[in-house]
Automatic annotation (TrEMBL):
Record carries keyword Zinc-finger: no
GO biological-process terms attached to the record: fatty acid metabolic process; glycerol-3-phosphate metabolic process; phospholipid biosynthetic process; triglyceride biosynthetic process
UniProt organism field: Thraustotheca clavata
UniProt cross-references to PANTHER family, sorted A to Z: DIHYDROXYACETONE PHOSPHATE ACYLTRANSFERASE, GLYCEROL-3-PHOSPHATE ACYLTRANSFERASE
Record has Transport as a keyword: no
InterPro entries recorded: GPAT/DHAPAT, GPAT/DHAPAT_C
Name of the protein in its database record: Glycerol-3-phosphate acyltransferase
Amino acid sequence: MKPRFGFFNMIAAYLEKKPKKDVLIVPISIDYDKVLEVPDYVAQLLGKPKQKESIFNLIKSIFSLFFNRGGYCYVRFGDSISMQPSLNAMDQLAKNVSLEMQACGTITSTCLVSAILLWHRNAVGYTLKDLHGDIQWLVQILTGRNATVAPFSSIDMLADHALHILNHPTTPLPLTCSADQILSMAYYRNHLMKDFLPDMCITTVLSSPFYQSKQKFTIDMVVEDMQLIWKFAQRLCPTGVSDLKCAVESFFSAFPALVRKDDFGNLTIEATAWRVDRFVSFTRMLMWPFMDALELVMHVLKQHVAPLNEKHRQKHHQFSERQVVHWVHSLIQSGMIEHHEAFSMESIKQALAALVDYGVLMHQQNDRVYEIMPKYTTIAAFEQLNHRIQGLRKPRRKLWEVQASTPAYSSLPWNLTALLIY
């Protein structure tokens, strides 16, 4: 979300009159193991009506504080930022403050465990021991990237604490959850995105069918194919990365076993190593729910708007943000999307914003009314773009395609086992 400048503008107006004075902005990060407002926030994301304020609800919420375990709160202060040199660059000042707030943030236990449970959602035979191993691995990755992780005396204590806060049973792990539970865990998981933003875009692109078919490619090709999802990622989380080519080169340098380079500088993905790599699997999991949101938006526009533009070439049909949200939510029961987070109103709104940034849509009248750009008004052009987006989504696994890591059919859920036997 773009920052607001009302308070900054008030201070800037004062400093313009007092050029010898300065104001220091101190970024503060306050992170909670449990945010009490998350259930209400999730309900609004799913389009449910906002709970009306009343004395009864106020008393109920106060009473519940005595029985809810909220966990720990972490407060950290970032480096101060001088405001006087940035009076003519409020955008850059706001970005610097946002980045510094992110840098001084704390990765909580619920953030770690939520990310891992959503990574292995619907997995078969996943145990508490596996969870501890994944937490240990993820903590090592984060500390290697200078992130601050919540201090616990042991990984076991961290996992038990987070599972209790999340009201998640210890067996089975992970548990197939409702949309509300998944969105609640996604709220905590998304705090990790700042530490993996370029990586999750790179691994998503390189996991697409073209790159996995042993085709030769160059870094410039990867950068070009990243443009749309990178614009989406920047909408989701502020980042200090400005040179995508350097980010891709750094990725290949960090993971040399995943690519093969020939004498002419062309690259090829090592498909076998890529499929089993832990880091690749985790980072693309962070991006796949948002790719599903992008696919949902493209699907409803292709269904409701593109045919009208094709039929009436001289008239570009407008549509509102509210219409898109309604069209997308009508598909909730369709089963076409694996990630429930994709139906979040915020994901849908940011997908629309990314399509505007990429040049597929443009604003009309105000920020909530859109129309398709002339380049994509034909169904053929729209379908071509949609096909590219579909290639960046998580491949749909058939029920009978049991993973090789599955120990035995006896460990499968009873309904899936019955289907296989039948």
